[in-house]
Write a structure and sequence with these properties.
This protein is mostly helical and about 120 residues long. The protein contains 2 helices and no strands.
Length: about 120
């Protein structure tokens, strides 16, 4: 093989590789544009998902069953919920000697033959 033939062959390889590189660069550019479009679409869809009747003009009926969590302005104190240690609760005190005892008998018991007995003690019937 002569020098001219080798140079010709190398020039063909260089031209072939250059066209391959150009083709790959075009593919990369097309994919980069497609990725940018897809990212923009994803961002728009995420914004649509985050919209509800409170932050858009959508009606409340379009919110579905999922309600947004209420945002409290209170800062957490670190204490447990409910009565704290040392707090004396209030309750209804039991009276050991009441002034008056009233028995409430159901109206259905008035026909019962044991009504007189029940008025004095608990109903057995």
């Amino acid at each position: 093989m002569t020098k001219d033939e080798m140079n010709k062959q190398l020039l063909q390889q260089v031209n072939s590789l250059t066209s391959t590189v150009d083709s790959l660069n075009a593919t990369i550019n097309a994919q980069t544009q497609l990725i940018a479009q897809l990212n923009q679409t994803i961002q728009e869809l995420k914004e649509q998902l985050n919209k509800n009747s409170k932050n858009s003009s959508k009606p409340p009926s379009s919110d579905g069953f999922k309600k947004p969590a209420p945002k409290s302005l209170r800062k957490p104190s670190g204490k447990k919920v409910g009565g704290q240690n040392g707090h004396q609760g209030t309750h209804l005190a039991v009276i050991t000697a009441p002034d008056e005892i009233v028995k409430h008998m159901p109206s259905a018991c008035e026909e019962c033959p044991h009504y007189q007995i029940c008025r004095g003690t608990a109903c057995i019937a």
